[in-house]
Amino acid sequence: MARPQIAIVASDDRKAATAKTKLESLHRTTTPEKADVIVALGGDGFMLEVLHDMLGRDVAIYGMNRGSVGFLMNDFHDGDLVDRIVRAQQTVLYPLRMSATDDKGVCHEAVAINEVALFRETRQTAKIRIMVDGVERLSNLVCDGVLIATPAGSTAYNLSAHGPILPIGAQILALTPISAFRPRRWRGALLPTRAMVEFDVLEHAKRPVSAVADFTEVRDVVKVSVRIDESAPVRLLFDSEHDLEERILKEQFVT
After folding, report:
1. What is the CATH topology of the domain spanning 6-94+233-251?
2. pTM reported for the whole predicted model
3. Domain spans in the chain, listed from the N-terminal domain onward
4. Which of 9, 110, 126, 154 is placed for a possible disulfide with 216 were both Cys, Cβ 3.0 to 4.6 Å?
5. What phi and psi, each to the nearest 5 degrees, are found at residue 18?
6. Is 229 a catalytic residue?
7. How do residues 159-186 score in pLDDT, each as one tens digit?
8. Could you tell me which residues come within 8 angstroms of residue 203 by beta carbon, excluding any fewer than 6 positions away?
9. Which entry of 36, 44, 80, 102 is annotated as an active-site residue?
């Protein structure tokens, strides 16, 4: 990579704001609109916000951890920033596109870097039919919800719901139930990234369900379709010793 034009953005956290001030005193920066690389200071939640803000732009994101877990972030150092960016390895991620139709017939579009999830809205369990590429795979999943996660999102809510961790280069998605009641033994499925997944909410008036694509929630949905959106890639940069592929691999051996 040639010497890039960089912009620095930070979360509202005091630690991140202090780091931004220090880095801007050490390095020549530009505005996010003119930058080749956005340096994001914060945690994974802030990184997710930045990735959404930069969707559709030809810009790379280099994160440094000024939050808590920092799974998508590099370690923070205030020196050698430009050299680290130039040497960094690039990972290209493709988001999920959700089309959700509510009970009034309105269709809502949204994208998700991590996952699209359906949740019951009331005390009653949801009943959901699952179609994959037009073929019915589950006629009636009785559950608190169900989600479909990208490899990048497989270590987020998907992991908490006991879904599988996916290597970042794997061309698969994780379809994971949330507290499934019926079928009792169903633990989810691995799907190719080219798959179109459709969820039909059964008894939606009695058992209302919401659909969430990262930050976007649609209430009272009756039908949700999800597929990979190859028109909106996002580019992340990682130090060679802390690349995302290695982090995901290590996460699978945590005890």
Report:
1. Rossmann fold (3.40.50)
2. 0.86
3. 6-94+233-251, 96-228
4. 110
5. -65, -40
6. no
7. 999 999 888 778 899 999 999 999 988 9
8. 127
9. 44
